[in-house]
TrEMBL record:
<feature type="region of interest" description="Disordered">
    <location>
        <begin position="472"/>
        <end position="495"/>
    </location>
</feature>
<dbReference type="InterPro" id="IPR051166">
    <property type="entry name" value="Threonine_Synthase"/>
</dbReference>
<dbReference type="Pfam" id="PF24857">
    <property type="entry name" value="THR4_C"/>
</dbReference>
<keyword id="KW-0663">Pyridoxal phosphate</keyword>
<comment type="similarity">
    <text>Belongs to the threonine synthase family.</text>
</comment>
<feature type="domain" description="Tryptophan synthase beta chain-like PALP">
    <location>
        <begin position="107"/>
        <end position="335"/>
    </location>
</feature>
<dbReference type="InterPro" id="IPR004450">
    <property type="entry name" value="Thr_synthase-like"/>
</dbReference>
<dbReference type="GO" id="GO:0004795">
    <property type="term" value="F:threonine synthase activity"/>
</dbReference>
<keyword id="KW-0456">Lyase</keyword>
<dbReference type="Pfam" id="PF14821">
    <property type="entry name" value="Thr_synth_N"/>
</dbReference>
<dbReference type="InterPro" id="IPR037158">
    <property type="entry name" value="Thr_synth_N_sf"/>
</dbReference>
<protein>
    <recommendedName>
        <fullName>Threonine synthase</fullName>
        <ecNumber>4.2.3.1</ecNumber>
    </recommendedName>
</protein>
<dbReference type="InterPro" id="IPR001926">
    <property type="entry name" value="TrpB-like_PALP"/>
</dbReference>
<feature type="domain" description="Threonine synthase N-terminal">
    <location>
        <begin position="2"/>
        <end position="79"/>
    </location>
</feature>
<dbReference type="InterPro" id="IPR029144">
    <property type="entry name" value="Thr_synth_N"/>
</dbReference>
<dbReference type="Pfam" id="PF00291">
    <property type="entry name" value="PALP"/>
</dbReference>
<dbReference type="InterPro" id="IPR036052">
    <property type="entry name" value="TrpB-like_PALP_sf"/>
</dbReference>
Length: 495
């Protein structure tokens, strides 16, 4: 499997070459040259696999430069019962006759990002060790990415994490998950600004390629293809489990729809790849909150990223995004490489891109439909589901369920992606449930009580650069200047 850039100026590269960076050297996004397919016979054989085994099969189709047995060891470690609270890793819960919840949030930070990040937490050290390299991960978070990356890489030799978060703009649980970590390779920098300011700092610092290379900076943001391909696995898993009870003849090709709470378009883009790989997916239902740039795109064919002043603060904050980074991959696919090249340029010039006559293909050919929600929709959905079933969901999942219900079709089960656990966003859940709000679980109370450790920094490139220059691991492993692999667990030099 080779990867190319949406912008067309990257020599084809292999999985391990593109893993440490989301962005291609030409500023585009890396995409697989061709999407692999899985036939229905093979898919049926996958029914007996455990989650780590299935993930290894799916990822193997994309990471063809990693030997299969190695991948199996990596996914076994990533999805071990020590990390995920559910023994099946991704449990499904029937909500009503037509709707099932897909439990993607059983990991250590109670959000779906753990599923991709725990895999990166295994595969990146593996690749670095083979190459005798170190990595300094520089990233920005609005809350969930930061904690899942920190839990995935804490204590990993040869890797330091520098996480920029917007000071005072995350939920108390999100804050505690990050700032209560005391591993020396985790650096939390709270920026005096909003998420977009943090993102801009990362962009400004990594745009300086000499600095980036000197300090071995890499990224694990939502455009990282390693994350995307790990996410494809749970679409296959969810389909297999949702169809297990059907008669063998019917289940082979039984279509389901997925409702996906969306922001940067990373999660549902993985669903799109699963569908192109042959998984019987009828609809990919893209759900947004009031920041509805994706809903606008799928309804009208116009992609118009918004300036940060127009990004609203909502009660599903992990979806408060007005530029959906991964959408470039889909638009590249819809337009084709050639037409993409001329029209993407116009997006930069005019601030909007009208897919025009391609719009109907988004639904007819690719299966996308969409919808957006208000705070009231979220509250009502949490309440209604609780009254009907006793199941409590978080506000992001409620955005997915609300649109899933609206877009329901007779005879097609909708699988709703649970992108976070309700205890992570307790305020909104208790607004919805009042006296019925479940008590704060002991592990959350204990987490909130732990001492927190964070460095406050101004929204200033020079300050963050200086911090990195002082604290980043040296680019080559301290004990192997000639690039030979360093033994595991060894002290790798000053932090
Ligand atoms: C990150 C996140 C999303 C959005 O996922 P994308 O891949 O960016 O579309 C939705 N819900 C929660 C809880 C998240 O953390």
């Amino acid at each position: 499997m080779k990867y190319v850039s949406t912008r067309g100026h990257m020599p084809p590269a292999q999985f391990c070459d593109i893993l440490l960076d989301g962005l291609a050297p030409d500023g585009g996004l890396v995409v697989p040259e061709a999407v692999p397919t899985v036939g229905s016979d093979e898919r049926e054989r996958w029914r007996g696999l455990t989650y780590p085994e299935l993930a290894a099969r799916v990822i193997a189709l994309y990471a063809t430069d990693i030997p299969g047995p190695d991948l199996e060891a990596l996914t076994r470690a990533a999805y071990s019962p020590r990390v995920f609270r559910s023994p099946v890793v991704v449990p499904l819960t029937r909500l009503d006759g037509r709707t099932t919840l897909v439990g993607l949030s059983e990991g250590p930070t109670l959000a779906f990002k753990d599923l991709a990040m725990q895999f990166l937490g295994q595969v990146i050290p593996y690749v670095l060790e083979r190459a005798g390299r170190t990595l300094n991960i520089l990233a920005a978070t609005s809350g969930d990415t930061g904690s899942s990356a920190e839990y995935a890489f804490r204590g990993k030799p040869g890797i330091d994490v520098f996480m920029l978060s917007p000071r005072g703009r995350m939920s108390p649980v999100q804050r505690a998950q990050m700032y209560a970590l005391d591993d020396p390779n985790i650096h939390n920098l709270a920026v005096d600004g909003v998420f977009d300011d943090c993102q801009d700092l990362v962009k400004a610092i990594t745009a300086d390629t000499a600095f980036k290379e000197a300090h071995a900076l890499g990224a694990v943001n939502s455009i990282n293809f390693g994350r995307i391909c790990a996410q494809i696995a749970y679409y296959f898993w969810a389909w297999l489990r949702a169809t297990d009870d059907l008669p063998p003849a019917a289940r082979r090709s039984q279509p389901v729809s997925f409702a996906v709470p969306s922001g940067n378009f990373g999660n549902v883009y993985a669903g799109h790849l699963a569908r192109r790989m042959g998984l019987p997916v009828r609809r990919l239902i893209v759900a947004t909150n009031e920041n509805d740039v994706l809903d606008e795109f799928f309804r009208t064919g116009v992609y118009a990223p918004r300036p940060r002043e127009r990004t609203l603060v909502t009660t599903s904050p992990s979806m408060d995004i007005s530029k959906a980074s991964n959408l470039e991959r889909l638009i590249w696919e819809v337009l084709g490489a050639h037409e993409f090249a001329s029209r993407w340029q116009r997006l930069a010039e005019e601030g909007r891109l009208d897919l025009g006559d391609h719009r109907s293909r988004l639904e007819d050919e690719f299966g996308f439909v969409s919808g957006s929600n208000t705070h009231g929709d979220r509250i009502r959905t949490i309440r209604t589901l609780y009254e009907r079933t006793g199941v409590v969901i978080d506000p992001h999942t409620a955005d997915g369920l609300a649109v899933g219900w609206r877009q329901a079709e007779a005879g097609v089960t909708t699988l709703v992606m649970e992108t976070a656990k309700p205890e992570k966003f307790g305020d909104t859940v208790s607004e919805a449930l009042g006296a019925d709000t479940p008590p704060v679980p002991p592990h959350i109370r204990e987490l909130l009580a732990r001492p927190q450790r964070v460095r406050e920094v101004p929204d200033d490139v020079a300050t963050v650069r200086a911090y990195l220059a002082d604290h980043a691991l040296p680019a080559a492993r301290a004990d192997s200047p000639d690039g030979a692999p360093a033994p595991r667990g060894q002290d790798l030099g000053p932090a």
